[in-house]
Fold this sequence. Notes:
- This protein is of the alpha+beta class.
- The protein is about 55% helix and about 15% strand.
- The longest helix is centred in the N-terminal third of the chain and has 16 residues, at about 20-35.
Amino acid sequence: xxxSKTWALAFVNSLESEGVKxxxxxAAFKTLSNRIKSLPxxxxxxxxxxxxxxxxxxxxxxxxxxxxxxxxIRFIVLMVRKNMFRHRDLIISDIQKxxxxxxxxxxxxxxxAVTEGGEEPVEKLRITEAIKKRTGAAKLVLESKQNPALxxxxxxxxxxxxxxxxxxxQLNNMKENLQRGY
Length: 182
């Protein structure tokens, strides 16, 4: 497991152990880390963690800090102390992946050949339903983009699995079969 996954898992586990809803905790973490990222770089010197805690606690002087924000502040302070805040975007990406996995969200990429009008393929709805059925996803996030190298057809990438229904792939298969003498 790489470091960003370890940090992401630690954050998700801390939310769960405190009974905080994952979406609330994740939103608080992204909001606070974006604000901290916009602070002047002078903050990231000596005593940076204490400065960050003070800045955010000053904003809630007379209020009780929501637990999602309190946990996020503590986690960000720990990241700053361990010099991990610079990897914030990777950690956020891995938290999102954990969050999606827990909620049954699957992300797939659809690459399709350039069409006459530049529209997406007609089969997109059929492809979407097939992916949901194959993966058991409650929700599918489908990123689409044109890929002129495909000549025709499409390619679907789900994690490390590739479903290649492109003409270029079929032509390459025919070429290999002819070279082998089939």
